[in-house]
Amino acid sequence: MTSIESTDVGLVQTDTGVSWASIAAGAAVAAAVSLILLALGAGLGLSSISPWSGSGVSSGTFKVGTGIYLVIVAVMSSAIGGYLAARLRTRWAGIHSNEVFFRDTAHGLVAWAFATIISATVLTGAASYMVSGVASVAGPAAAQGAASVNPPQIYVDRLFRTDGAPPANANPQQTQAVRAEVLRLWTSDFRDNSDLSADNRAYVARLVAAQTGLSQADAEKRVNDTITEAKAAADRARSAAAKLAFWLTAMLLFGAFAASLAAVEGGQLRDGRWQERRLVPRAW
Length: 284
Known about the structure:
This protein is mostly helical and 284 residues long. It has 2 domains: 3-146 and 245-280, no CATH class; 150-234, no CATH class. 74% of the residues lie in helices and 6% in strands. The chain contains 8 helices and 4 strands; from the N terminus they run ββααααααααββ. It has a two-stranded antiparallel sheet with strand order 1-2. It is elongated and about 95 Å long. The relative contact order is 0.14. Residues 1-13 and 134-147 have low confidence and may be disordered.
């Protein structure tokens, strides 16, 4: 139903409960603010870490600080976007205050949703661009080397590492073939079972003993130690991914709440009255 309202600036006609223009404006501003704050956070994070022992923050502190900062970014950017989405909307005439409250909250929530979609697409590309820029500063060779690292290959190299000279009967071509075979076994078993099967473990131990000159017992110990290290690294990666997922969930929930709450404030001011230079919010 179309309604007409007399305001301080004239007649305003409204025929919808959704102001898509204000929602789009709020979402765009929220996404832009997120990019600015993320760029600032990246700079602060890079300046707080150091490869030297005793310098910079610890790994655990850095991870927690990153999670908290992501939540702060979501709250600040979403609050600004939600506030603008409600403040820029057209005033509704003949609507109950409870309905106005709901619509303002919905405007903030929808603006947050749009900003989240924009951030997941455009900002991801921008973040990738910044990361590639850092890699280019480090040098093409370093970037290529980092991209070509294969984690299973690292553990295979540790299996066949020799402390002294290789055995006299070592054949380089045969050694490469053995390493390639062990790499295939390692990759296949860890992909399916996150471990080497008993048969493959014993077989790999025999190959390690033959290629490195270790005794069978020492070769089996090296294989077991390497597998334990690989499983511990996989568990740390799983734990880090789970914590990141929880932080992202908190970021999204706090962002949605901040956008909705700020939209209520923006709507009250939008429907308020100017008394000289003071804006009085809408009374409930």
